[in-house]
Amino acid sequence: MTSLDALWEPLTIGKLKIKNRVMTSAHSLAYGEDHILSDRHIAYYRERAAGGVGLLISEQHAAHPLSTGSFVNCITAYEDRAIPQLEKLATALTEFDCGFFVELFTTGVQDKGAMLSPWHELWGPSAIPSPIHNEIPHVASKREIASLVDGYAVSAKNVLRSGLSGIELHGAHSYGIAQFLSPFYNQRTDEYGGSIRNRCRFAIEIAEAVRDAVGEFPVGIRLSWDEFAGEAGITGEQSEEIIDILADTELFDFFDISGGNYHNLHWVVAPMSVDDGFMIPFGQRAKAVVGDRAKVFIVGRIRHLEMAATIVENGWADMVCMTRAHIADPELVNKAREGRQADTSICVGANECILRNFQQRDIACLVNPITGREQEWGGGIKRYSADLKKDLVVIGGGPAGMKAAAVAGRRGHRVTLFEKESEIGGHIRLLAQLPTRTRWNAAIDNLLSEMDRGNVNISTEVEITKELLRDHNPDAIICATGSEWESTGFSASRPDRSTLPGHEQQNVIPIDIAINRFLEGSENLGDQVLIVDDTGEYLPFGLAELLIDAGVAVEIVCPKAIVGENVAGAMEGGHAFPRLEGKGVVMTANAFVE
After folding, report:
1. Are 537 and 573 in contact (CB under 8 A)?
2. pLDDT tens by residue, 363-404
3. Three-class SS state of 113
């Protein structure tokens, strides 16, 4: 096993000493209240600080009055009323020796004038709209650019006053600064546009104003090394010049390297179908350009500490962002340092977090139900112990039954779990057998490990009877027998009928049975298959890919506006749609089977 020692070396950023090389990058939680950091935020960050992480970076904080609209409950940093909660956060983190940087941003065109905050103008470097929000912005004048710069300075001073550790300027992912850096969004002909040096002017002016406001306080910038938009956007070659120009100013203590923009968010928050550590080469290239002038952070599906240690040990980056890994398990670092690494809950990349974010909901985690509920539940399960120990029976070995058994067992109850199949895992095990879905096995492994720590007794291939339950005589029974796929063809989109005419025919079957039949023999579903999907989830895509790879003609028909609505929302669509369409899968939206 790779030694993790490189990760435990401290790192000095500016004049701030960070205790280890593991961090979380900025990620929107949507826990704000009246555009102010909430106690729920503080509980979330405190849990990760207690878990041993060296550095936390906040979600985006608006650095100007026009930038509180793009995200639900987006937090302000430019108003004095933000300071008390920031101070409360600083106090909450003190005992854990954990650095905390506040990310400042302006939305630019990634917003709507009447989206979530009071009605406001949209300012952009040029009259280029967001590909998602599609509102033509007002082209910011030099006076308005100066207003934005002043907003960053005021906001940075508020962060300094609060007692937190540093500032990150959000210059990635098509937000305000990144729009000036990108040749797609920035088509100006004045001193803010044209050459790469001119496109860097806005970022440099902000950094200068922030430095004047905060002095030697740590300040850095997050950048998209490659916008994955070809020559239309920022390329890696352009980024080499950008980062060299910025490093030469000596204004930046660190460069936080990411990738992607609003045209390809499926690379910004890459799902499980993307290789772990796919952005590591960007960090390597950035580090080669920056040298000793500043520190380099790297992100990009880094889920395991062994990979993080390899990055640091080889000098590819100075800090490693393990953001979703810490959403899934806040104690990631402590478990490794205490020899409990086998207890770690691994992020599977299901992207429930980002799906909720783009649905304008507060984030949660498929792997860790405590995420976002730290204030309500008080943190990790180890802090709870049942006063009265009971004998419990859990019926059903899917994810719900496994989690219920694990939690009950870890609280000290005596738990037996019964599953009628030969293996536990339920619908997740079915998903894990599909192309690009093998990482779902990590979710099963997480639950098996947790049940093992709770001393849960597991019995498979058992049909529950009254006699069996009478023999066990439990104090309580938890029924987690799961759900079954609707096979009548009922759709809420068709209130005029309760079933699909002809659904009783033998060739109309639920999708789980269809997948199992195919896995038993690729010829078992015939030469032509129609998948009628009313869920918007990945399972129909997985079956379609199995079938098309076996030479079967496949069409997915869906009554919704797009096929795979939640697949797209979880950032998987940008990978799955072109792959399946390229193989010949037909996708038909806004349609019904009559």
Report:
1. no
2. 999 999 999 999 988 776 556 788 899 999 999 999 999 999
3. coil
Give residue-wise pLDDT tens across range 497-510: 999 889 999 999 99
| Active-site entry in 175, 192, 262, 538 | 175
Query: If residue 355 lies in a helix (H) or strand (E), which one and from where to where?
Result: helix 352-358
CB 412 within 8 A of CB 436: no
d(CA 353, CA 330): 15
Q: Is 45 a catalytic residue?
A: no
- What single DSSP character describes residue 156? H
Q: How far apart are CA 251 and CA 325, in angstroms?
A: 31
What is the phi/psi pair of residue 323, to 5°?
-75, -60
Residues 6+ apart with CB under 8 A from 286: 225, 239, 243, 255, 257, 296, 298, 317
Q: Which residues of 35-62 are buried (b: 16+ CB within 10 A; e: fewer)?
A: bbbbebbbbbbbbbbbbbbbbbbbbbbb
Sheet holding 414-419, edge to edge: 457-460, 414-419, 391-395, 476-479
> What is the Cα–Cα distance from 321 to 303, expressed in whole angstroms?
9
Please give the torsion angle defined by the CA atoms of residues 265, 268, 271 and 274, in that order, rounded to the nearest 10 degrees. Answer: 110
Tell me what the mean pLDDT of segment 108-118 comes to.
80
Q: Which residue has the tokens 């993080």?
A: 308
DSSP at 501: T
Rounded CA separation 107/141 (Å): 16
Strands 586-588 and 476-479, how do they pair?
A: unpaired
What pLDDT is attached to residue 383?
66
Beta-strand runs (E) in 396-541? 414-419, 457-460, 476-479, 528-532
3-class secondary-structure state, position 567:
helix
Copy the structure tokens of residue 72: 């639900």
CA pair distance 109, 128, nearest whole angstrom: 8
First to last CA, the chain: 57
3-state secondary structure 300-325: CCCCCHHHHHHHHHCCCCCEEECHHH
Angle, CA of 582, 586 and 589, to the nearest 5°: 125
Are 227 and 176 a contacting pair, CB within 8 Å? no
Distance CA 393, CA 401 (A): 10
Looking up tokens 């039954």, which residue turns up? 401
In angstroms, the CA 350 to CA 570 distance is 7
Residue 227: pLDDT band (50, 70, 90) is: very high
Distance CA 344, CA 336 (A): 8
The pair of three-digit structure tokens given for residue 203, joined into one six-digit string: 């970022």
Q: What is the mean pLDDT of the chain?
A: 94
Q: Where residue 98 falls among pLDDT bands split at 50, 70, 90? A: very high
Q: Identify which of 588, 528, 529 has the alpha carbon closest to the alpha carbon of residue 559.
A: 588
Would you report the helix, strand and coil content of the chain in percent, each value rounded to 5? 40, 15, 45
Cβ(225)–Cβ(259) below 8 Å: yes
The amino acid present at 87, given as its one-letter code, is E
Determine the residue type at 346.
Answer: I
Q: Rounded to the nearest 5 degrees, what angle is found at the Cα of 362, between the Cα atoms of 275 and 406?
A: 70
